[in-house]
Amino acid sequence: MCDLTGKHGLIVGVANKRSISWAIAQAAAASGARLAVTYPSERLEENVRELAAKLENPLVLPCDVTSDQQIADLAATLDREFGGLDFAVHGAGFAPADALHNPFVETSRESFRIALDVSAYSLVGLTRAVAPLMEKRGGGSILTLTFIGSGRVYPNYNVMGVAKAALESAVRYLASDLGPKNIRVNAISAGAIKTLAASGIAGFSSILQVYRDRAPLRRSVETSEVADAAMFLLSPASRAVTGEILMVDAGMHAIGL
Ligand SMILES: NC(=O)c1ccc[n+]([C@@H]2O[C@H](COP(=O)([O-])OP(=O)(O)OC[C@H]3O[C@@H](n4cnc5c(N)ncnc54)[C@H](O)[C@@H]3O)[C@@H](O)[C@H]2O)c1
């Protein structure tokens, strides 16, 4: 049911081998998909090219999600090379460092704007660009990544929590707009994982310890576990699921204290 043979997918958000998006790319490739992976800047291009070399016949393309032009160019290239698109993974997230250290009340207008632009609006822009390619295939699946800090306070998660709340709301509005075209939009709310993005959050290790102490499974999650859940949401196995935030967090969301 989670077979992706013959499907074409886009993966945004690979920075290095610890990236959740990289685990999803590997799982999707193992399930038979041909992939395009993107890099946001020249600084990360070499990393992404090195990783992508492990995939079969990948496209490696630039895409800074804050640029409408780069998103449009990406969609045009995918259309030319793949002739449509079956799924897209949006794993881009960013907030300026000061906003992840200082008290939330001190968040500047500019840090707020950047965090919401990269981490939330980009799903809207990217979805709008790839939707016509998915229509060509009779539908598609779009997946983004969120964190429980959207609805509850996690120390130093701050403006990222606000951005994730906007992202989750965007998932529901996009799912409503695009459902009639058989394009589904969902999110995985992943448990805490030590990645590049996570290392920007002050005191992140103590969040991991709380998972070990209190989550029902007494641990957090691995990127491969998020990727396995992603295979469900990207494949026809989830064909009746849209507008959903799937908790893949070792059960942490179920705990009060
Ligand atoms: N690590 C966790 O604990 C955790 C938990 C839940 C959700 N998430 C979310 O998962 C997603 C992936 O994060 P990760 O933990 O794998 O870390 P990561 O640092 O590997 O991935 C974040 C990605 O965002 C990309 N990015 C940043 N600015 C961009 C831009 N302007 N244009 C395009 N891409 C840009 C980075 O290049 C990077 O590839 C993020 O949305 C993150 O918030 C992470």
How many E-type strands? 7
Order of helices and strands: EHEHEHEHEHEHHHE
The bound ligands are:
nicotinamide-adenine-dinucleotide
Major β-sheet strand ordering:
3-2-1-4-5-6-7
Residue fraction in strands: 5-15%
Radius of gyration: 17 Å
Structural features, described:
The protein starts with 7 loop residues before the first strand and ends in a 9-residue tail after the last strand. Strands 3-2-1-4-5-6-7 form a 7-stranded parallel beta sheet, sandwiched between helices. The chain is α/β, with parallel strands linked by helices and 257 residues long. The longest helix is centred in the middle third of the chain and has 27 residues, at 109-135. The chain has helices at residues 20-30, 42-52, 68-82, 109-135, 158-178, 196-199, 204-214, 223-234; strands spanning 8-12, 34-39, 59-62, 87-90, 140-146, 183-190, 245-248. The radius of gyration is 17 Å and the shape is globular. Helix 5 (158-178) links the parallel strand 5 (140-146) and strand 6 (183-190). The structure holds nicotinamide-adenine-dinucleotide.
Keywords:
seven-stranded parallel β-sheet, binds nicotinamide-adenine-dinucleotide, 257 residues, 15% strand, 7 strands
Summarize, please.
The chain is an alpha/beta fold and 257 residues long. Helices cover 44% and strands 15% of the residues.
SSE diagram, text form:
Layout: E1 8-12, H1 20-30, E2 34-39, H2 42-52, E3 59-62, H3 68-82, E4 87-90, H4 109-135, E5 140-146, H5 158-178, E6 183-190, H6 196-199, H7 204-214, H8 223-234, E7 245-248
Parallel strand pairs: 1-2, 1-4, 2-3, 4-5, 5-6, 6-7
Helix pairs in contact: 1-8, 3-4, 4-5
